[in-house]
Amino acid sequence: MKISEFFNKELIVTNFDAVSQDDVFNVLFKKLFENGYVKETYLEAVKKREKVFPTGLLLNKYNVAIPHTDPEHVVKPAIAVATLKNPVVFKNMANPLEDVLVNIVFMIALNESHSQVEMLQQLIQLIQDDSLLEKIIGEDGGDGIIESIKKCTI
């Protein structure tokens, strides 16, 4: 399955004025939950996992976080996205003692554990494209972000 199929405009928040990682988790969880993608247990499971296995990624220009959790908390697969008005602190995936100022959050909800690795690999390929991240940051709505991602994955 292509990664672009997991993005839905109702799961995208642009230019979000968050002050903390929890703000981002709460707003993306609300979108996932209200649209029937995750169970109520998803939010606490993501927060708990993030403390043990942080997902902040230090990249070239824009930094990214990829929070996710176990499939048992997911109803159907999706990726929720938040572009942040101001960067929010996450812990670095490679060095949990280091902070990363994150600009874009891709919150992954997958209901099969074997698909998680494949999805992460596809997402890592996408976020290594600085021009794509620039386009995503510059978009003012979910439709534009989905179009940009589709163009990169054709």
Descriptive account of the structure:
The chain has helices at residues 21-34, 42-52, 113-127, 130-138, 142-153; strands spanning 7-16, 56-57, 64-65, 78-91, 99-109. With 154 residues, the chain is α/β, with parallel strands linked by helices. It has a single domain (3-146), classed as 3-Layer(aba) Sandwich (Mannitol-specific EII, Chain A). A hairpin with a 6-residue loop joins strand 2 and strand 3 (64-65). Helix 1 runs antiparallel to helix 2 (42-52). The protein starts with 6 loop residues before the first strand and ends with a helix. 37% of the residues are buried. The mean pLDDT is 94.
How many domains? The number is 1
The overall strand count is 5
Helical element count?
5
**Net shape:** globular
Overall pLDDT level: 94
Decide which structural class fits the backbone: alpha/beta
The succession of helices and strands, N to C, reads EHHEEEEHHH
Range of strand content: 25-35%
How would you characterize the largest beta sheet? 5 strands, mixed
- Compute the CA-based radius of gyration: 14 Å
CA(first)-CA(last) distance: 12 Å
What is the CATH architecture term?
3-Layer(aba) Sandwich
CATH topology: Mannitol-specific EII, Chain A
Q: What is the CATH C-level name? A: Alpha Beta
Unreliable parts:
none
Strand order of the largest sheet: 1-4-5-3-2
